Amino acid sequence: MSDFRPLSAQFSVAPQIGIEDIADAKAQGFALIVNNRPDGEAPAAPQGDHIAGACAAEGLAYAAIPIGQAGFSHAQIDALDKLLAAATGPILAYCRSGTRSTHLWALARARAGEDVDGIVAAAAKAGYDLTGLRPMLDALAGEK
């Protein structure tokens, strides 16, 4: 059963998805799947090319913005910003637990000038705690 958790009307996150989740994502109206998990991180999990192929078969767009142990960079936030700007429908992002996907979304939204309290509340409602990320969110929001 799919575990898609909305952060906004246009962006949801999930723990690692399987090939069988792609049809469910399509049925729920997602237009794009974003993989935030580096290939090889968990060899038993479906790798990016398998998810990309399943997305293509269902008529869904696919993009990869891997986030490894090095953490987050402005380049990754820029990549998500471009996907958000070009989106033709709702986006589903996934990683091992959904946390990295949530953090990337939160950083992008804070940098875009969205209300940090609202970002934190949306993440909490989806089951993700942004307490440790709050200083970075505030700093990015302050750049606007």
From TrEMBL:
Residues 3-111 form the Beta-lactamase hydrolase-like protein phosphatase-like domain. It comes from the Bacteria. GO terms for molecular function: hydrolase activity. It holds the Pfam family BLH_phosphatase. InterPro entries: BLH_phosphatase-like, Prot-tyrosine_phosphatase-like, Rhodanese-like_dom_sf. Coiled coil: none annotated. SUPFAM superfamilies: Rhodanese/Cell cycle control phosphatase. CDD domains: PTP-bact (cd14503). This is TIGR01244 family phosphatase. It comes from Sphingopyxis lindanitolerans.
